[in-house]
Design goal:
896 residues; alpha+beta; 7-stranded antiparallel beta sheet; 6-stranded mixed beta sheet; 20 helices; 43 strands; globular
Length: 896
């Protein structure tokens, strides 16, 4: 059989069996292998046979080495190094510039499966573009692979959970439908090869508290497990054919998720027929022994996890498997089975095949961060906007509005666009920048408030000027290639503020991403006399090996000097310093930043903790000079997220202890409302907010989430009427923290719209429009249905308003007096665009699973009784919808 062609890459002789995919490095002087010598290199053979052949040639130590996320090369077998860890939640993360889409919760607010599929397919395209280039460069580092640890389909059962922003909300059906669309987009539809591998996480029953996740035991009923926590995972496995599943940190009923026979063997493999591989959350195998004390040591924990079905460890714990085999805790055939599943994925990605056979190898790097993809990000952001309030048609802005006060901590904040697990935007557009472009010369900006007292916010441009002669905002920025200021700058420009994320990216063309320096000079003025605390934070990086230096001079005196030496796996911590100001005059400022790292970690934010009263006074002054006020309030990934050290009122460890808008922002809204000017609230957040009196003080409220790189443009276009909002809430906005059960209670009683009996601030599925829709002529296929059969519904939808717009049609099953049943449950949804006056007939089929209920023992079946289907633009009872009663006769138990 013909040998594969040989290429010279990076000075090493290599066999190119994957072309732009995985390079198989040969030892110097070794002969070229052929498929005749090595059947696993023969693409004409079945994948299963090829995988078996390769694994049979490995030693035990080699097999174990491949079961850790940073898998080393095996030169004698021509297996290249591969790092399984990559992130693609809403863009290819942490590996340089890529298109940043709205955060997952914002994508969920679109209620649009086709759009979700397109977003995921675009993420996969950019992943292949980056991977192909990385292979040309000989780069096999973390975040450049094709195995993505997304999507997060945990049910956002409680708005206090900091990672709810990563999910698709609180409903199992909505989460499952959107998750399937995302998985299919990531993995592609090629009959022979996967575009990338998607990973459904975190399996299962995982939604806080973050501070307890390494030892928390979620004790739940059989009913809640089947009714709420597992259905979305089932959809991704059975319908989406997801290639990978990540097991969670927490335990379930005493058994850690990564060693749970019930979850991994019974549910995932036996009941649902999952054939992919299972990866642990990072250090979750350690938690089996240390956090949960379920195993005596790492060898026992690793053995238990492998035998349960966890094939890959994020971390080094599986190095202990050699000891586990020697002690007969796990067998080598069990190791073989895990390694076969892992290499099946690598073969299906085309990593051992000739380049020309794998269609995705031809995707050029130019496909990454392209204008077309930026346009899709804007489309997604526009579709995610949810209009919550619009009194007296305050929106869109009337032509009589000539000037706007733009205030609030999120008006110009980069993290409020990005969310977490984010890509790096090359051209992010903040709301302030977009509104200034839309209304040039008519914007009065003020930061107005911090998120919460005790948490620093970026120093705004209003405190920074180029010189003392005029009021031009910002700082002179000089960018140098290399880690010194000894040469001429490559680029000189004006930066409005220092708030940059360059993780894995160069700050500008012609500058190395691995070593560069920036000098900012200008003037700084304090909002009031007194001590003022400043801080610097570095860009997020999970596996940094970066060295950072930051120095500051004020009025020629050095006030700060910080150097962080390279530390593998740790980013430079936030550093603060305090300066005493005796006036509000302009003081000369110089900041020097030097970055050195192999690949990751660059970025810098210059923040402060200003006096709240002074910021508020500036915002009120801006409001009084304006016709209307747009207040960008809410949260930030800096205060809600994954296991963080923050401890301030209302926030703890990444979670929230209260869902109310923080006091500093409430006080800002009070003061703005007192001016008598119309106040428009734009919420930017990853979880639900209780707005209290602000909900009534505002003329209009727009929920914008963390909307991605084009989020500012989408917001401005929505406020101006260039985009008609049609998003729907994928979560319930409760009226107050007191409506919630204890955070660590995983029971579903009085949780989410399906079981909540109180009155929310805004219900799940809610969203207004600038036009109006009407439902009529509803008809069911039968008023009486035999259990196990589908039910068809037909309804006429008409746009009776004066504007074109999208309508999200929501169909709910309403059981009547069924014990333990949800009050209502989403059974179908569709998003349609209609011109003014246009109508369409919708034909929707509800399958038997969406007509089924779960009994107390956890069995799912279609039950006899009286039901209603509600079809409308929101939950049952909204003014636009119609009720359609029917009965089910007989009983039909559903197979898994």
């Amino acid at each position: 059989m013909k040998a594969k062609s040989v290429h010279l890459i990076g000075g090493k002789r290599a066999v190119c069996v994957a072309g732009l995919a995985m390079l198989l490095v040969l030892a110097p002087g070794a002969a070229k292998p052929s498929a005749g010598d090595l059947p696993y290199l023969d693409p004409s053979l079945p994948v299963e046979q090829r995988v078996d052949d390769l694994v049979s040639r490995m030693t035990l130590d080699e097999k174990i080495s491949q079961m850790q996320n940073d898998a080393p090369a095996i030169p004698r077998l021509h297996v290249a190094a591969y790092n399984w860890w990559n992130e693609g939640l809403h863009g290819v993360a942490r590996a340089g510039y890529a298109t940043v889409f709205p955060q997952a919760i914002g994508l969920a607010a679109t209620w649009d499966t086709e759009l979700m599929h397109n977003v995921a397919s675009t993420i996969a395209t950019e992943a292949r573009a980056k991977y192909n280039q990385a292979q040309r460069d000989g780069n096999t580092a973390i975040f450049y692979g094709l195995t993505f640890w997304s999507p997060n389909i945990n049910i956002d059962r409680d708005p206090r959970w900091g990672r709810g922003q990563e999910t698709y909300g609180e409903d199992p059906f909505l989460t499952g439908r959107l998750g399937v669309a995302f998985v299919r987009g990531l993995q592609g539809d090629d009959p022979a090869y996967l575009k990338t591998v998607a990973t459904a996480k975190h399996f299962a029953v995982h939604s806080g508290p973050e501070s307890e996740r390494h030892s928390f035991d979620a004790v739940i009923s059989d009913h809640d497990l089947e009714d709420t926590y597992l259905p979305a995972f089932r959809q991704l496995v059975v319908d989406g054919h997801v290639g990978s599943v990540m097991c969670a940190y927490n335990a379930i009923d005493g058994s850690p998720a990564c060693s749970s026979q019930m979850l991994l063997q019974q549910k995932l493999k036996r009941d649902w027929g999952f054939r992919g591989y299972i990866v642990s959350d990072c250090a979750a195998i350690t938690d089996v022994a240390v956090g949960h004390k379920f195993a005596a040591d790492l060898a026992h924990a690793s053995a238990l996890s492998v035998r349960a079905g966890t094939d890959l460890s994020c971390g080094k714990e599986y190095a202990s498997l050699a000891q586990a085999v020697r002690e007969h805790l796990v067998t080598e055939p069990e190791i073989d089975a895990a390694v076969r599943r892992l290499f099946t994925a690598r073969f299906r990605l085309g990593m051992f095949d000739p380049a020309e056979r794998v269609p995705f190898n031809s995707i050029p790097f130019a496909q990454n961060d392209s204008p077309a993809h930026a346009a899709l990000s804007l489309e997604a952001a526009r579709a995610s906007m949810v209009l919550l309030r619009n009194e007296h048609n305050a929106l869109p802005f009337a032509s009589s509005i000539r000037s706007l006060a733009v205030v609030g901590p999120n008006a110009a904040a980069l993290p409020a666009l990005e969310g977490n697990y984010n890509a790096i935007a090359s051209h992010p557009v903040t709301p302030l920048a977009a509104l200034e472009q839309l209304y040039p010369g008519h914007i009065h900006y003020s930061q107005g408030a911090p998120y919460v007292e005790g948490v620093a916010v970026p120093v705004p441009r209003t405190a920074l000027t180029l010189n003392t002669a005029d009021s031009q905002a910002g700082l002179k920025a000089e960018y140098f290639s290399g880690d010194s200021f000894d040469t001429a700058p490559v680029l000189t420009r004006t930066d409005p503020a220092i708030d940059f994320d360059w993780n894995g990216a160069a700050p500008a063309p012609g500058i190395s991403a691995k070593a560069f320096a920036v000098r900012w000079t200008g003037y700084l003025s304090a909002p009031a006399p007194g001590p003022l605390t400043f801080s610097f934070s570095m860009a997020h990086c999970s596996t940094c090996d970066d060295a950072e230096t930051v120095r500051v001079w004020i009025d020629g005196n050095q006030v700060f000097d910080f150097t962080h030496q390279p530390t593998r796996g740790r980013r430079a911590p936030t550093q603060s310093f305090t300066v005493q100001f005796h006036d509000r005059e302009r003081h000369a400022l110089r900041i020097e930043y030097i970055h050195r790292a192999p690949l990751f970690g660059a970025g810098l934010t210059f923040s402060w903790q200003p006096p709240v009263e002074a910021l508020r006074a500036e915002a009120v002054a801006a409001a009084r000079r304006s016709d209307a006020v747009v207040a960008f309030v809410g949260l930030s990934p800096e205060v809600e997220g994954e296991e963080m050290p923050l401890r301030v009122p209302g926030f703890q460890g990444g979670d929230r202890t209260a869902i109310e808008l923080p006091a500093s922002q409430m006080q800002l809204i009070d003061a703005l409302a007192a001016t008598g000017k119309p106040v428009i609230l734009v919420l930017m957040n990853g979880s639900a907010l209780a707005l209290g009196r602000a909900a009534d003080q505002a003329s209009a409220i727009l929920e914008a989430w963390y909307p991605g790189e084009a989020g500012g443009t989408a917001i401005a276009q929505t406020l101006a009427g260039q985009n008609n909002p049609a998003g729907r809430l994928p979560i319930t906005f409760y009226a107050a923290t007191g409506q919630l059960p204890p955070f660590d209670d995983y029971g579903m009683h009085n949780r989410t719209y399906r079981y909540f009996t109180g009155k929310p601030l805004y219900p799940f599925g809610y969203g207004l429009s600038y036009t109006r829709f009407q439902y009529s002529a509803g008809h069911l296929s039968s008023p009486t249905l035999q259990a196990g059969l589908p039910l068809a519904v037909t309804v006429t939808l008409r746009n009776i308003g004066a504007r074109p717009g999208d309508e999200v049609t929501e169909v709910y099953l309403v059981p009547k007096s069924e014990p333990g049943a949800p009050l209502r449950a989403l059974a179908a949804f569709e998003r349609h665009h209609l011109a003014a006056g246009e109508s369409t007939t919708l034909h929707i089929t509800i399958d038997r699973r969406q007509l089924s209920l779960v009994d107390a023992s956890g069995r799912r079946n279609v039950q006899p009784g009286s039901y209603e289907l509600y079809v409308g633009g929101g939950q049952p009872g909204s003014s636009t919808g119609i009720f359609l009663p029917f009965r089910i006769t007989g009983t039909k138990e559903l197979d898994e």
